[in-house]
Automatic annotation (TrEMBL):
<keyword id="KW-0285">Flavoprotein</keyword>
<dbReference type="InterPro" id="IPR014729">
    <property type="entry name" value="Rossmann-like_a/b/a_fold"/>
</dbReference>
<dbReference type="InterPro" id="IPR014730">
    <property type="entry name" value="ETF_a/b_N"/>
</dbReference>
<dbReference type="InterPro" id="IPR029035">
    <property type="entry name" value="DHS-like_NAD/FAD-binding_dom"/>
</dbReference>
<dbReference type="GO" id="GO:0009055">
    <property type="term" value="F:electron transfer activity"/>
</dbReference>
<dbReference type="InterPro" id="IPR033947">
    <property type="entry name" value="ETF_alpha_N"/>
</dbReference>
<dbReference type="Pfam" id="PF01012">
    <property type="entry name" value="ETF"/>
</dbReference>
<dbReference type="InterPro" id="IPR001308">
    <property type="entry name" value="ETF_a/FixB"/>
</dbReference>
<dbReference type="GO" id="GO:0033539">
    <property type="term" value="P:fatty acid beta-oxidation using acyl-CoA dehydrogenase"/>
</dbReference>
<keyword id="KW-0274">FAD</keyword>
<feature type="domain" description="Electron transfer flavoprotein alpha/beta-subunit N-terminal">
    <location>
        <begin position="4"/>
        <end position="185"/>
    </location>
</feature>
<protein>
    <submittedName>
        <fullName>Electron transfer flavoprotein subunit alpha</fullName>
    </submittedName>
</protein>
<dbReference type="InterPro" id="IPR014731">
    <property type="entry name" value="ETF_asu_C"/>
</dbReference>
<comment type="similarity">
    <text>Belongs to the ETF alpha-subunit/FixB family.</text>
</comment>
<dbReference type="GO" id="GO:0050660">
    <property type="term" value="F:flavin adenine dinucleotide binding"/>
</dbReference>
<dbReference type="Pfam" id="PF00766">
    <property type="entry name" value="ETF_alpha"/>
</dbReference>
């Protein structure tokens, strides 16, 4: 039996999607061996977060009421103490800015092997972690024979768990050594235009190099407005300076999981697909019937965007 301890994430008073993905990954992993899933909520409004995280597959939620926002030193101390108390087989964290900040320190302190950026987890006697390398062109499997491990999971790879459950909620008292808390959050500054977060959008209209010129972006913006959607893009659009960096989807941009992703004049390069393949519905418009984007699209229109987009705007308006 392998128990799993998954560490949830929140920012500015809201649980991050990866928390709900950690529930899915953690409960799958724990149930493969009949183990329990323990969730940890550290900092912020832990009681409200625990209510939101009362989900199917969760056995116990441990709340640690320490601070408002993520803090490296608090997380390291809290996770280490929880591990020593619960003795889980596996610790799961998000492969996020925060997760990658504290996971290595936790692994070092607990002398655990750390596998980062997991896209698949299997527990068949030993833990097997699937990772992707070289811009998702190569898949590697890592077999962990240490018996126990810390793993960070890639956001957007697991479904979010929504079904309600009835976990126990327990306040976990951890003595935080303040002399070892060497940083604190003093404020937030959004990078780029800062007015939108494409990772939060339900509907994304995404534009690629097929748009040809900067002034043509207005056309795709009109479609986004007609759909009440958010505008995003592939990398060349950002490299050209036509949209800010925070609109870029992909390996070196943001990972998005909207309900609808409309890819307009985007070929579907692996580095782009790495950021949007988790979308529920993918619709592609492209003149090239062999464009790789059609391999992952649920619906495709083979056509010239300069004909199709105005028609769509008219229909939706
Ligand atoms: C390390 C690394 C990281 C990267 N990270 C990212 C990343 O995060 N995000 C990202 O997007 N890319 C990234 N890239 C770049 C990536 O490899 C591709 O070059 C890029 O995604 C291509 O963008 P595109 O699809 O807009 O352009 P193209 O590949 O040039 O595709 C344009 C498409 O538009 C179609 N088209 C042309 N005219 C029309 C028309 N009139 N109507 C309809 N369709 C038309 C064409 O058929 C073509 O399929 C990265 C590359 C590297 C090496």
């Amino acid at each position: 039996m392998s128990d799993v301890l998954a560490i949830t994430e929140h920012r500015r008073g809201e649980l991050r999607d990866v928390s709900f993905e950690l529930v899915t990954a953690g409960s799958d992993l724990a149930s493969q061996s009949g183990g329990d899933l323990h969730l940890a909520v550290i900092g912020g409004d832990v009681d409200a977060f625990a209510e939101e995280l009362a989900l199917d597959g969760v056995d116990t939620i441990h709340t640690v009421a320490e601070g408002d926002e993520f803090n490296h030193d608090v997380y390291v101390q809290a996770v280490t103490a929880l591990y020593e108390e619960l003795d889980p087989t596996y610790v799961l964290m998000g492969n996020t800015v925060n997760g990658l900040d504290y996971a290595p320190a936790v692994a070092e302190q607990l002398d655990l092997p750390l596998v980062t950026d997991a896209v698949g987890l299997e527990n068949e006697g030993a833990l097997t972690v699937t990772r992707e390398m070289y811009a998702s062109k190569v898949e590697s499997t890592v077999e962990v024979d240490a018996g126990t491990a810390a793993v960070t999971i890639r956001p957007g790879e697991w479904d979010v768990t929504e079904a309600a459950g009835e976990p126990a909620v327990e306040a976990f008292d951890v003595e935080i050594d303040d002399s070892r808390v060497r940083s604190r959050v003093t404020g937030f500054e959004e990078v780029g235009s800062g007015d939108v977060d494409i990772a939060d959008a339900d509907v994304l209209v995404s534009v690629g190099r097929g748009i040809e010129e900067e002034e043509n972006i207005e056309l795709v913006q009109e479609l986004a407005d007609a759909l009440d959607a958010t505008l995003s893009s592939s990398r060349p659009i950002v490299d050209n300076g036509w949209l800010p960096k925070d609109r870029q989807v992909g390996q070196s941009g943001k990972v998005v999981t909207p309900k609808v992703y409309l890819a307009i004049g985007i070929s579907g390069a692996v580095q782009h697909v790495a950021g949007m393949k988790g979308a529920e519905n993918i619709i592609a418009i492209n003149t090239d019937p062999d464009a790789p984007i059609f391999d992952i699209a649920d619906y495709g229109i083979v056509g010239d965007l300069f004909d199709v987009v105005p028609e769509l705007i008219e229909q939706f308006e």
